[in-house]
Specification:
Length: 168
């Protein structure tokens, strides 16, 4: 593991990586702590700021150009902005369940799912974690592992829709 690829990266990449990693760690702590407390609200605001900053920095990362300066990965920026807006709107309305669903979806989708893409060879975070010459083996292990953890957390954390009994 070496931070050299990250330290040599453009400022937008550094800001994005630092805020995204911080959001992953803080978000995990928030997910498993008691909800509704002043600490939860403070940590939630910090997390939302980290997410907003990571998404905004990502707009300026244009190394993969498929549509003008953008790539499909930039859709996660829109997803993040929408998820933050929806989560904040719902808690202000007093709809705690919808707020929780929005924030959990944002954590799992914009951080864990998008984070899995950073584990492909030739991506900067791959180089930080595994080195530039590690080949495909770490990706073939790490990506399915991240996707499995994301799926397990989704199954565990997201509210289940209850089926109504059939009318007789």
């Amino acid at each position: 593991m070496s931070l050299t690829p990250l330290l040599a990266a453009p400022l937008a990449v550094q800001i994005h990586a630092i805020t995204a990693v911080a959001a992953v760690l803080l978000g995990a702590a928030i997910l498993f702590r008691r909800k509704g407390t002043p600490t939860h609200k403070l940590l939630g605001r910090i997390w939302a700021l980290l997410m907003f900053t990571a998404a905004t920095a990502a707009i300026f990362i244009n190394e993969i150009r498929l549509v003008g300066p953008f790539s499909p990965i930039h859709l996660f920026v829109l997803m993040t902005y929408y998820g933050l807006w929806e989560g904040i709107r719902e808690i202000r309305r007093g709809n705690v369940e919808a707020h929780q669903a929005a924030m959990k979806s944002l954590y799992l989708g914009a951080l864990l799912l998008a984070g899995a893409f950073t584990l492909l060879p030739d991506r900067r975070m791959y180089q930080v974690l595994f080195g530039p010459d590690a080949g495909w083996t770490p990706s073939l292990i790490a990506i399915p592992l991240v996707l499995a953890v994301t799926g397990l957390l989704w199954w565990r954390l997201m509210p289940r829709r209850r089926r109504r009994p059939a009318a007789s």
